[in-house]
Design goal:
The protein is mainly alpha-helical. The chain contains seven helices and five strands; from the N terminus they run E-H-H-E-H-H-E-H-H-E-H-E. Strands 1-4-5 form a three-stranded parallel sheet. A two-stranded parallel sheet has the order 2-3. The two termini are about 15 Å apart. About 35% of the residues are buried. Helix 1 crosses helix 3 and helix 3 runs antiparallel to helix 4.
Length: about 130
């Protein structure tokens, strides 16, 4: 499954209403994939939610070092593919981070996303909760 920003927030923050659902989905996953734009977006989300910055950074450092999670470091071609997808979906409110996720999910044959974001469903994927 793809680990999206909102899913990571639910996993990270015990006070999130979907925390337990996120934890269970994460533990049940055979594949865990995320990317650099999710990590960047998570830092910004943590700041917006006024979460303790040291805890947010430690969570992301641990996530990136976890051998059970593949982190894709976005390069120029992947970034350009995501920009093209956004240009093709002008009727949607997808973020650049979403677009990278959708491309990677298609490339890897993934259907499930640890997310509360309805954009994944709009693009034909399955959000696991929320």
């Amino acid at each position: 499954m793809l680990l999206d920003t909102s899913g990571l927030l639910c996993l990270f923050h015990r006070d999130e209403p979907q925390h337990e659902a996120a934890r269970q989905a994460y533990q049940a996953a055979r594949t865990r994939l995320t990317h650099a734009y999710v990590l960047a977006e998570f830092v910004a989300l943590g700041q917006a939610r006024r979460l303790p910055r040291p805890a947010v950074l430690e969570f992301l450092t641990d996530l990136a070092a976890n051998p059970d999670i593949e982190v894709v470091w976005v390069d120029q071609p992947l970034h350009e593919q995501a920009m093209q997808l956004l240009a093709e979906r002008l009727d949607k409110k997808y973020s650049l981070c979403d677009a990278v996720s959708f491309i990677l999910m298609r490339e890897r044959g993934l259907q499930d996303a640890l997310t509360t974001d309805r954009h994944f469903e709009q693009e034909g994927f399955r959000k696991l909760f929320g």
